[in-house]
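Hi Q.,

Before the meeting this afternoon, I wanted you to have the adenosine monophosphate prediction in hand. No need to reply - just skim if you have a minute. The sequence and ligand are here:
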Amino acid sequence: MSDPAPLPQGSVIGILGGGQLGRMLSVAASRLGYRTHIYEPSAAPAADVAHALTTAGYDDAEAMARFADAVDLITYEFENVPAASLDLLEARRAIHPNRRALEISQDRLAEKEFLNSIGLRTAPFAAVDAESDLAAAVQKIGLPAILKTRRLGYDGKGQIRLREGEAPGWTGAPSVLEGFVAFSAEISVILARGADGAVAAFDPALNIHEGGILRRSTVPSGLPRALATDAVLMAAKIASALDYVGVLAVEFFVTPAGLVINEIAPRVHNSGHWTQAGCAVDQFEQHIRAIAGLPLGDGKRYADVEMENLIGDDIARIPQIMAEPDAQLHLYGKARALPGRKMGHVNRVSRP
Ligand code: AMP
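Predicted structure with the ligand bound:
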């Protein structure tokens, strides 16, 4: 069977979500001769660099239908699109990555069950549908543990740590209780899979979080080669099992007993921003190539890179960063620097 023809030049790629990831996807798409149409309910930094913008809610069926009719292919940088909207979009246009990948990553419980079903390790977990289930879950998992909402959590939001001797909190929504993983490091793998099954992975990055938000990603990760190989193989197994097309991010905890998967994201990922300065084809272009049916870059790394997120008031440091000789600055064009808001990032490059 021959592979489907690549998406023709000038085609419009619809992107659900208009944040910084959509913005950088849009720039990559335009470098490859495509146009983008952003769908975003609120302020959309991505719209500054896009061909068209729809400002409407993710549950607005009419706006969704018009959006789908106006584009040739749909992708996303935001995975919490309601199922009914996905039905509507999918009936009109192809969506990459596919529905199953999206649905699994929308629900922490479904995600962990899926990962375990293909033989991959996660933190021990128990479903907590209601507050009345919490005591039994704590009994099963033990303390310390982390209670996370099943849906709509990101950057540590919707999470409560439960400790021995403290009154347990409640998230207010169906949740999953995760055993606390005593990790020595956190790493992530960003890989791409094409419709033909080709896979290309970037080097795993070492990630440092502060207050639940990614602060820095560094390559090389400094971890043993065998561990990096394991991480890439596990990520590839996930991509194959999901018949995935596009860029996939997999976050791992490094423990003395090996790698434990924290979570997966069916999209480009903050911990892959270093590829902009370290690789000929970065994660954004790689994603566009994968969904457009173009050949993938090979993921080779040409530099050592440290990516630092600029969060909130960090942007006051822009003049100093601009004065650094080896710093590549990316700003997202967001109007206000609120605490915890990602305003931009810096890739600091050195020779490998
Ligand atoms: P998440 O939003 O689930 O990625 O969680 C944000 C951060 O909280 C992670 O990157 C870890 O640093 C920490 N964390 C999350 N889950 C666990 C866990 N089960 N055990 C230990 N630390 C965790």
